[in-house]
Amino acid sequence: MNIEKTAPRDFKPVNWKPRLTAQSQLPNIFGDAFACLLPMLTFVEVEIVGRLFLPEILLLLMLPFLLIFRGHLLLEPLPKKLILLGFIWLLSQIATDIIRDTPIEDSSRGVSKIIFLLLNFSSVYLYINGKKNRLFMFALGIALGQILMYFINPNIYAENYPWKFGYGSGVTLLIVLAAQFRFFSRRKLLSAIIILSAGLLNFYTDFRSLGLICALTGGFIIITKSVSFGYHAIKRADVAKLILFGGIAIYAITAFYRYSVNDDWFGEEVREKYLLQSTGDMGLLLGGRAEILASSQAIIDSPIIGHGSWAKNPKYVDTMLDALSQRGYALQGALNDDLIPTHSYIMGAWVEAGLAGAIFWFFALMLTLRCLTVCYQTNATYTPLISFIAFNLLWNIPFSPFGAEGRLFSAYDLSLMIVTLSMTRYLATSKLPA
């Protein structure tokens, strides 16, 4: 497709060069290599106020030097606002723990989770901002680190579900990065096919959320290449077409998965799990993420203050189980503790810290949507990687639990979103507030 013919006169494609620092080649090579090595070391962890990973310690040691030489970058509108909202979230968590008289061991873990997210973000953002290769190399390090963690320091679920809770995320990210190579990136349809194939692999291994993320990423790459949706300013008609296309795509993916499972393509275990989670009145989404029944009630009961770090209350566990039973879902066994179930970045922050935690993640959600808009409007260099990370965030914020290595990975995800926005003319021309 000829971009110049379809784009408006004032359109300018993404230009990374003005933001790249002119330095000698050798320091850049070592810096890029360290960007890969750093997240690879995630398998090394220590028990200090909960689980702390070696990359987080290294990022903390790096931060003073990064602040001296590049700290002014945090004063730009988006990173400054993110850190400010994170600080308000932190203060709200501290106040909530005091009001709720949260045990010190729980409070220290809840507060440190927020502190290290903000510290990780500050270091990662300063380290990769304006360094094009480091965006790629840090993602490569995350992928290799996830694989190494499975072999060296696996979590408790990895033995029974090695793909979903072990090396699957790392292998999938490697596939996305492979699709980013110049040979494939110049043939975007081929790049999309590679990522869609990774989605099929994840559906086959019962990693449904990652399969959906790959499917959306592949579809997004296809529409940015198409004549109907090519690189141009978004108009109302385009928004309607994108919403319609997205709705049809999600319905098609869901229908295909339902047909495949019922036809026993993915094995009897996957079929039994699907039937167990989808037989209720509200389908698979509620069956697979039943925690929303508990967390939403906890938020209704205390929307401003929250319930405290690692909030425990058997009332909300019982609420969830009763609601599932009433809606026709088969109960899958009792929970092992009285923690208020959340399984969501935004709902977990809201339940534990109150409204301020939800505002932080809502802002992150808006950043992600804006970043996808940039990728749609411009010929961004790393569109496959950026869109994959963006869709991953769009899933994780409402549907995944936050903590542990997620502090490091989400710090990179948020950094990538903001760096992408700052490396375009989007902030200067967008009607959305910065």
UniProtKB/TrEMBL annotation:
Superkingdom of this protein's organism: Bacteria
Keyword Transmembrane found: yes
Transmembrane stretches, start-end: 48-69, 81-99, 111-128, 135-153, 165-184, 189-204, 210-227, 239-259, 345-367, 379-397, 409-428
Keywords assigned by UniProt, alphabetized: Membrane, Transmembrane, Transmembrane helix
The protein's name: O-antigen ligase family protein
Organism annotation: Candidatus Methylobacter oryzae
